[in-house]
Amino acid sequence: MTTALSAANDSVFLRSDYALLSAAILDIVGQKVATTVLGVLSFLRFSMAAISPLIAGYLYQNFGMKAVLFFVAALFAISAAIFASADFNTRILHEK
Q1: Phi/psi at 86 (nearest 5 deg)?
Q2: pLDDT tens, N- to C-terminus, the chain (96 residues)
Q3: DSSP for the chain?
Q4: Which residue from 67, 77, 79, 93 could staple onto 63, CB 3.0 to 4.6 Å apart?
């Protein structure tokens, strides 16, 4: 039961933005490099999904749960900063 709730929570809150982020990034880079960008996005998502549990486990064993929560918060802060600094109108303005 807990695993099902965890999977549902993960799908609803964390994975639901994949299509939106992919579409936004593809709007910026254009059609010429779309397949390359999608490959890089998939690789980065896989890399973070593979490495983050190892880092979180190390932090939990050596520093406790508070360190894991700070790690997750730092990941969200970094991605928010990257997302906030993106100029989504660059390609759209140049095409007009």
Answers
A1: -75, 140
A2: 445 555 555 555 556 667 777 777 787 787 888 889 888 888 988 898 899 899 999 999 999 999 999 999 998 899 889 878 877 665 554 454
A3: -HHHHHHHHHHHHTSTTHHHHHHHHHHHH-STTHHHHHHHHHHHHHHHHHHHHHHHHHHHHHH-HHHHHHHHHHHHHHHHHHHHH--TTHHHHHH-
A4: 67
- Residue written as tokens 């900063």? 81
Residue with tokens 């906030």: 84
